[in-house]
Every structure is written in structure tokens, then in C-alpha cells.
Specification:
CATH topology of the largest domain: Rossmann fold
Number of domains: 2
CATH class of the largest domain: Alpha Beta
Order of helices and strands: EHEEEHEHEHEEHEHEHEHE
Protein name: Universal stress protein
Shape: elongated
Low-confidence stretches: 117-127, 261-270
Radius of gyration: 20 Å
Strand content: 15-25%
Number of helices: 8
Family: Belongs to the universal stress protein A family.
Pfam families: Usp
Length: 281
């Protein structure tokens, strides 16, 4: 078992449902519990509810009933859900706040989300639900472009700048995942300085990183590019990667990757899911 519990926020859009299907399938292979979460906001007017915010009571009840119907429909759309241990939660809250609370309460090991939600594939994601969740939580997050799949994870690309190698515990989920599915991993370094090869410090850090992947089929790859995000996406396409794993210390790279993945579907037709591992620095 890689993780015990997988949280899947849903807004009932087609992208969200696709992510739920993929997350449930992954949970079955891992014997993990699935928690489906829907968070909603409604116009403030009339009566207090649990959060202390006043809302129109009739509208609140209508939305709760609509959410229940949506979950009933989801059970029909994804019959595999009945084959796993699952919970359903709905709450009046912002998505990132609701996710953060459930992560803490349920000791969540992984979050799986769709990337475009109800906004549409051509909408830039920055400021939307998935991006805000990534900035808020500290557990691994997999974001899945609409139409992408986690069912065949044979090739994984993991990016590294060979400057500050993470502790093995920090990338434990990635290590456990590639072992579990039997994937090969490409450890990718993008050089934007125009210098061929690694310097002494980078060589040392690369050797330290290799120790983390002992016993796992892996290969180091080096690519020159003007921009890190462009280099990552170019290599991901060429490698026919099934999953792209990044561990940014700053969210700038996530911003760039998300812009490209939404407006250009990761800039290529491969629709590669993106795993974000939070840095220990």
C-alpha cells in the first residue's frame, strides 16, 4: 500500500469526474480509502450556519439537495466507486480551505484533482481551485488534465536542479509509487546557462540523489533549454512520459507549467498528469 487515504475534490464537471475515475482506479490497486469532497459557496443574506456566515436558508437547502443528487449521479457514473472503501463529504467553504481541513482530519496521503474544473479547458488556471490547493497543502497532489489517465504508469519524469537534494522521506510517495507500479524513472536536469555537463557541486548532489533511487530503474537525463518549464515539457513529450513529477521550492514553475498544461494541454497531445511534491526547503 502506497497511501491509506486519497482525497478527491469534485465539482461534478467532466474534468473533475475524469479525475475521480482515475483516482478511484488507483485507490483500488492500492487498497486505499477514497474521500470525495465537494465544497461550495453561496450568496450571503439570511441565517447563520456552522461557519458563522449568514446565508439564505432556502438557497442553502436547495444547494445541499442538489449536491446530494450530484453525488447520487456520480455513483451511477462511476460504479467502481462501490468497489472501494469511500466517504462523501460536502461543506460550505472555499475549496482550498475545505481540502486543508480534510487533509488534517483524515490524515490524507494523496490528493487527486482535475486541472480545469468548471472553467473550461482554455481558461488559465492560476488562482483557481487546483492551484490554490497546491499552494495550501503539504501532501502530494496529482493534477490530471481532462482525458489523461493514471492507468498505465510505465515512464515517470522527475525534475531536479541538483542543488538541494531532498531527504528520502520527502520523496517517499514518489519512490513508493514507482516501485508499486514498476515504472522506470527519468531524473531530468534542465540547463539554462548554456554550459555542457554538471559542475562539481551538481555532480555530488546527483550522486546523492541516485542513492534515493537505489533498486528502482532510473536514468539521469540532461537537456539544455532557454526556460526550465519549456525544457521539462519538451522532454516529457519525447520520453512519452505517463507522469511528470516536480518538487518546486517556488511556485513560479508551477504557474508556468499550469498555464501551458491548461491552454495547450501541457503544450502537447500527451496530456501528462502532474505530480507535485512539496519541498522540504
Amino acid at each position: 500500500m502506497v497511501v491509506n487515504k486519497i482525497l478527491i475534490p469534485v465539482d461534478f464537471s467532466s474534468c473533475s469526474i475524469n479525475a475521480a475515475k482515475e483516482g478511484i482506479a488507483l485507490a483500488r490497486t492500492m487498497s486505499a480509502q477514497v474521500i470525495l469532497l465537494h465544497a461550495y459557496r453561496i450568496p450571503v443574506t439570511g441565517v447563520e450556519i456552522e461557519s458563522g456566515v449568514t446565508v439564505d436558508p432556502e438557497l442553502h437547502q436547495e444547494i445541499k439537495e442538489d449536491v446530494e443528487k450530484e453525488f447520487d449521479q456520480l455513483l451511477e457514473t462511476i460504479p467502481e466507486l462501490k468497489k472501494v472503501d469511500f466517504k462523501i463529504k460536502s461543506t460550505y467553504d472555499f475549496v482550498n480551505d475545505a481540502v486543508g481541513q480534510v487533509v488534517e482530519e483524515e490524515n490524507i496521503g494523496l490528493i487527486i484533482m482535475g486541472t480545469n474544473g468548471a472553467r473550461g479547458i482554455d481558461e488559465v488556471l492560476i488562482g483557481s481551485n487546483a492551484y490554490n490547493v497546491i499552494k495550501t497543502v503539504k501532501v502530494p497532489v496529482i493534477v490530471i488534465p481532462e482525458g489523461a489517465s493514471l492507468k498505465s504508469l510505465k515512464t515517470v519524469v522527475f525534475t531536479s536542479d541538483f542543488r538541494h537534494i531532498p531527504k528520502k522521506e520527502t520523496i517517499k510517495f514518489l519512490l513508493d509509487l514507482v516501485k508499486f507500479v514498476g515504472a522506470k524513472i527519468h531524473i531530468l536536469h534542465i540547463d539554462t546557462d548554456g554550459v555542457t555537463g554538471l559542475n562539481e557541486d551538481e555532480t555530488f548532489e546527483a550522486k546523492q540523489l541516485a542513492l534515493h533511487f537505489k533498486g528502482i530503474p532510473h536514468e539521469f537525463k540532461y537537456l539544455q533549454a532557454d526556460e526550465v518549464d519549456e525544457g521539462i515539457l519538451t522532454f516529457t513529450e519525447k520520453a512519452n512520459a505517463d507522469l511528470l513529477a516536480v518538487m518546486p521550492r517556488k511556485h513560479d514553475i508551477i504557474t508556468k507549467l499550469f498555464k501551458r498544461s491548461i491552454t495547450k494541454k501541457l503544450a502537447f497531445h500527451s496530456n501528462v498528469p502532474l505530480l507535485i511534491i512539496h519541498s522540504d526547503r
